[in-house]
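User: Okay, second chain of the day. Same drill as before: sequence in, structure tokens out.
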Amino acid sequence: MKGAQWMEIRSDRQKGLSYVELGRKYHMDPRTAKRYAESPQKPEYTLSEPKPTKMDSYKQIVDEWLEEAPYSALRILEKLREMGFNGGYSIVKAYVSSRKMDLNEKATVRFETMPGKQGQMDWGFFEDHLVHVDTVPSKRISVLWRIPGGDSVR
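Assistant: Same drill. Structure tokens below.
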């Protein structure tokens, strides 16, 4: 709430407007208008401390499991239930998805060098393929060569 609006509510109340009229004028509940009108200073709001959840005592274990492997929230829930966890799927899913986003950010760190200083090669394995040329079966081998600087021409 802006300080000017709080002052206007107090001023209108002193002029004789009812709390219902104040609520209608300022688009708020009459009880809120009453609280503002009777408040000697501008109301300050702060966030309360987060409430404890059923997951709190298990978060460290779940973090260790997620470091080991990318378990699904359902699998983690099964493992937690074996340990005596009595919470539901939604709280586990919310925590696991937030932790996985943090882990994914760590995994996508890029390493870059100046052009021409580093190369990349991918290896692949293929099954044997027979090619029939003139009714004689033979194996065909394909080779791909990369020429340095070959892609610099545009």
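Helices lie at 3-14, 19-26, 30-38, 59-68, 73-82, 89-107.

User: Thanks, on to the next one.
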